[in-house]
Every structure is written in structure tokens, then in C-alpha cells.
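Please review the protein record below. Let me know how this chain folds according to its C-alpha cells.
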Amino acid sequence: MGEFDLISRLTARAGARADIALGIGDDAALLQVPPGEQLVACCDTLNEGVHFLAGTDAGDISWKSLAVNLSDLAAMGARPAWTLLSLSLPRADRELVDGFIEGFHALASQAEAALVGGDTTSGPLSICVTALGLVPPGRALRRDGAQVGDLVCVSGTLGDAAAALNRARAGAPVDSAAARALQSRMRRPTPRLALGLALRGVAHAAIDVSDGLLADLGHIARASAVGLRLEAAALPASEALRALFPAEDCLRFQAIGGDDYELAFTLPPQRLELLRALGADLGVEISVIGQVVAGDGVRLEAPDGAAIDFGCTGWEHFTGSPP
């Protein structure tokens, strides 16, 4: 398949929105930002061997490449609008391309995010997605608003993706419902878009959990000039994770494993009942895992109050701190 055939197949399922004045086909897209909205932009690159294993299904790769960007929009309380895709492929055979398009389109259509441009090239397998969203001025969720006394909360469960990667690297078979559940969380994460929108005006600070809970909450602590005290026993774990790993491994995956793409956020205690109602309405499990305190840094505590130290707080590119 040639480059222009590839572009044509991508264009055929790009999606449509009334605010696209000019989409794929010119040197750049023309987009109309609605009155009373701010543009929210984010960009993530996924490389083979770093963000996904060699041999991963093309549809899973493309789904995840979009999901990690939509998760950033969710953490800002933004509504997705448009995407740009830069795609490097070692080969452009029909099966690979169609699988990639399927995964990307499946999630993009759910999020009502239209593909409006990008680039295609031959080379090592790498995907870069830019996602653009909208939020009213002053309503974006940020990292710098946490206040002493806030509760620290997280959506969903933690550690599944890191556990799935651990099993894959060890060559463990995907031969049970629990193993398949972990693999699904690793390959096709669910960006919490509806929750991000619902947290506008409710949460003081928010971030998505991509590099590890402790690492990502550390960004909130630094930006807000506060400390965070977390309870290890309160970190939510799936039944699949508990079924396949001992408690100490579960905790390590939950705390520093990353790739969860859940939302971690802080809010005042008086909004807890509102939060629980929002979670019930959206069908999203929300757990209170700690409190914002005076000081700095993030402290994870055992039930007896002792600090738990894993030697690192999550993944860091170029140093490669392992989960």
C-alpha cells in the first residue's frame, strides 16, 4: 500500500464535526474554536519497545495512542474535539493499516473527536497523537489547586496494566479471565472523559495516572506546594490483580506501576457526597486514598503509619526507573 492509499483509508474514517472549516487534504486544517471556549492541547508519542511490546495488535496500539491523549484532556476537564496523527510504519500492508484504523476510529467515535490531519512516513513503528479539546475559561482542572485538608481521590482501580506488562515480560500465558482482564487494561485503557467534565468546579486539582500514582501525585504536590499523605490499604485493586499476585506485588504495581490512565484528584471533604453521587451516575468507582497536608512530597503509609518506600515513584524516561 502506498502513502496516498494509506492517507485515503485514514481520511475515510476521520469523522466529521460542524466546527471543522477544512479537514484532511490541505497543508493544514482550519478549525473554529466556539465562542466562550479555550483550546486545550496535548501530545503523546508511543514507541515500540517502550510503550507497547513488539507484536502488539495494531488496533490495540492505535486505541492506546489516542486514549493516552484523551486521558490528558480528561485530567484538564476538557471535552475532546479534534486529533492529529503522525504515523511511522515499517510497512503499510492492508492488515496492519486496517487494524490500526479500526482501533483509532473505535475510540475516536466514542469521544466525538475528529481526525483533522497529521503525517505518515516509513520507519520504525511509532505513533504521535495530538489531541485538542475545549473548556470554558476558568473551568479547566489543573495541578496547582490542591489545598491543605483536601481529600485525595482516584478513579477505578490501580496496577492492572503494570501487572499485565510484568506477566508479558515473563512470558506468562493469558489463559484465564483474570489474565485477560489485566491485558485488556494494558492494551485498551479507558480515558475518564465524563468524570473529568463532572469534576469541573468540584475538584481543586487533578492529574491522570500515567507514570505511576506516586510520581503523578508528586506533580500535584509540587505545583500546589503541599504534601500528600496516602493510605496503602485504601489504594483500589481489581479482583483480577488480587487473584494473580500476592499483596506486596499488588501494592507495588498500584503505587508506581503506571499506565492506568485513571484520574487522581483532590477536593474538599464537604464535596465527598457529591463526588459519590457523580461516581454512581457515571458508573465509575471512586476511592478516597489520602489527604492533603502541610509540607511537601508524597508519603505512602502502611496501616501502622510507617512510610513505604519502593526506591522510585514511577517511570522516568532516560533513567528508566522500572515498575
